[in-house]
What we know:
By secondary structure, the chain is of the alpha/beta class. Helix content is 25%, strand content 27%.
Amino acid sequence: MSNLEKKTVRKVSDFLKNICHTEMVIELSETARTAQDAANALQVPVGAIVKSLLFIINNDNKEIPVVTLIAGDKKCRIELISKVLGVSGTVRRPNAEEVKKITGYSIGGVSPIGLSKSIKLIIDTSLRRFDKIWSAAGHPHCVFSASFSQLKDITCALETEKLTE
């Protein structure tokens, strides 16, 4: 079975079709599990790869899931996530099992599309440097492209320049 037929990838593909997005999900012969892997497979700068990273803010006995969309050549300043959202609390990285449970995707294939509406999204403005950026599409071998503006609009992500270094 092709990875394009997997349930998680079809979820992303169907969403893109439903919004008439011009770029469809493609399957890579090599893994895109890391930003560098994806950049190598696509022959694009690593900064044009979107890292979809899940974090949990522990706030007054409540866990707030947040996905940050970070350029592949940048590091997320984890200590600033709660500040960008205007929420107090400690921020932590969940384990692989939690990532799958919360997002529906496995690490390496977490797509910014098809997430629960309860998950907040933040997008790194440094991704604007590229005409086309590439995101995971539900599997480590599947990706889709969009412009910064398209991805921001599709995901309803909060735009910030204060989250990366």
